[in-house]
Design goal:
about 210 residues, mainly alpha, two-stranded antiparallel sheet, 6 strands, about 45% helix
């Protein structure tokens, strides 16, 4: 008897403009009273996210999926990625509220960055030195290192000044506002934008 086909996982909605912010958005509806939705439920989900974001190539992600690593090792990587995600979320939402990041958040982020930096080395490319990663497809921790590096790169970049969050109180997904007049309000106009327009429409009619 043939095995039933497993459902194809839904692709991640990468709307933020930077992989670090897309990572924060993998905890969906984090401010909803009904409770947030975890989109990184497994190590395989993490590999899909890293691959779809361009941090890993398809072959690299497949090799990591087949890697001889225990369930406990994979679970630990996922736990640390979520800690990194929530650390960045705390820093980002504090900035949006006009507050300095907490000292504990900065210490946690620095620890992950230092861990990642141990696995890079300088190589030559087109006559110039560039940073390269060592054997990413052989290290179960590779997604964590890549995300830690991307997170620090974002926070130290000039583009961080364009950080915004969705105007929907239950959503508040993070994104970079690259619009001409810096007036973007929604993570996705087709989703949160239209939803809020509909709410205002019904509220006016009810009055």
């Amino acid at each position: 008897m043939p095995r039933p086909e497993l459902p194809i996982p839904k692709p991640f909605e990468l709307l933020a403009g930077h992989v670090a912010l897309d990572l924060v958005n993998t905890l969906n509806n984090r401010f909803s009273q009904a409770g947030p939705e975890e989109l990184l439920a497994s190590y395989d989900d993490l590999l899909r996210f890293a691959s779809q974001s361009g941090l890993l190539t398809g072959p690299q992600a497949k090799k990591l999926k087949r890697l001889d690593a225990s369930p406990a090792e994979r679970a630990e990587v996922l736990r640390e990625v979520k800690e990194l995600r929530e650390t960045l979320a705390a820093i980002a939402y504090a900035q949006l509220d006009g507050q300095d990041p907490s000292a504990s958040a900065l210490v946690t982020l620095e620890g992950y960055f230092k861990q990642a930096s141990l696995h890079r080395h300088l190589t030559a490319h087109q006559l110039r030195p560039v940073w390269s990663w060592r054997s990413l497809d052989c290290q179960v921790m590779a997604p964590l290192w890549l995300l830690a590096q991307s997170t620090v790169d974002f926070l130290l970049s000039e583009g961080a000044s364009e950080l915004r969050c969705c105007a929907s109180e239950t959503c508040r997904w993070l994104f970079l506002d690259a619009s001409k007049n810096q007036t973007r309000r929604w993570c996705d106009m087709k989703v949160c934008g239209n939803r809020m327009k509909a709410r205002r429409f019904y509220a006016r009619n009810a009055e």
